[in-house]
Amino acid sequence: xxxxxxxxxxxxxxxxxxxxxxxxxxxxxLARLDVRTSERAQASLLRRARTMDHADGPWLExxxxxxxxxxxxxxxxxxxxxxxxxxxxxxxxDEGVGSTAAHLVCGHRRExxxxxxxxxxxxxxxxxxxFSTGYAANLGALQALLGGVEGAICVQDKLNHACLIDGARxxxxxxxxxxxxxxxxxxxxxRSRPQAPAMLATDGVFSMDGDVAPLRELAALARSxxxxxxxxxxxxxxxxxxxxxxxxxAAGLSAHEVxxxxxTLGKALGCAGAFVAGSAALIEGLTQFARPYVYSTALPPALxxxxxxxxxxxxxxxxxxxxxxxxxARFRRGAGELGLPLMRSDTPIQPLLLGDADAALTAAxxxxxxxxxxxxxxxxxxxxxxARLRITLSAAHEEEHVDRLLDALATxxxxxxx
Length: 418
Ligand SMILES: Cc1ncc(COP(=O)(O)O)c(C=O)c1O
What we know:
Layout: H1 29-42, E1 54-56, E2 59-62, E3 65-69, H2 82-95, H3 103-107, H4 110-123, E4 127-131, H5 134-146, E5 153-157, H6 162-171, E6 174-178, H7 183-191, E7 198-203, H8 215-225, E8 228-232, H9 247-250, E9 260-264, E10 274-278, H10 280-289, H11 291-294, H12 301-316, H13 318-337, E11 349-355, H14 357-369, E12 372-373, E13 375-377, E14 387-392, H15 399-410
Parallel strand pairs: 3-12, 5-6, 5-7, 7-8, 8-9
Antiparallel strand pairs: 1-2, 2-3, 4-10, 9-10, 11-14, 13-14
The structure holds pyridoxal-5'-phosphate.
């Protein structure tokens, strides 16, 4: 999910006393939440989790229907890889399920240590530190680096993921956003506060758009402005760069140029969890000050073992990336021929921009009647007027799957590319 700021509710907050109670003059928080939820529903923007009964590669079973999914982030098709499953089972058999404690207590197991080493080596950093989710990793890194720093600013792309935005807020830094991928805009924000300690943070690949950040230009800007550059490569790791080392590697940037690198294990690596990689000093500092690391239970060791198997495959198996590239090219060619509203993306995230939230929802429903599962992404996850079908491709797909998707899209009479 991305990050657009939730709009202020149309209905004003309940006034004090609405909660009733014995003389207390407070707004009723639960009632207020109900009001906000109803407003979402009225705007056709309600979010709802659907229960998938079974997953089989890209196929999903829901309510007795078997659907071909184009919405997972399992870009390399590793989530059900036999080597990951075997590693998971082996360590679960030997070590049980839970890690039983935070890393700094007794939760840090051999499997975590081995995974951290492999991630550091893959990304060309001195060290890496695991977090239980990407959300926690970003909160932890930003809070450790910016928290309590007098007058600090955090300059971010407008389309950065929600957890980068939240991390800056939680750290108490002044958040300054620039228009998407606009390096001059980033420069203006940095130069508006030339003396302020500054972090420049960007997604490597934008989660709802699929395009890659102008990383080389941002690195040059960070250098000239004395800002610290942080890249969230959740959607780039495993997919981009030599041996899948990610968008930062693909841009040819060193650990010095991008001193804070974060990526997740739940997307191309098919597992769950995340890490921050950087210098030994950075990781030492995070060990002291990153609260989501210090105060949270370590990932299950079996999951760390599965992720290590995933790293080994993702590094070595260029054929998966080559297959993915063929599928992406086939989809883009076909969608272009159909005049579909493709966005500028060469990654497995291939959104079709429909604009209207109802139009996106209707398109997703109609695809589902044809046996395809594609998620409609609506505000506030994306800006108002930019609802879309977020189509994602995976090495688990076959070319005929892409053709089937294109055939179904052709029947929808979507708005033409602008
Ligand atoms: C760019 C980006 N960063 C961070 C996250 C959060 O990662 P996680 O799902 O592991 O919390 C996500 C994904 O959901 C993401 O898309």
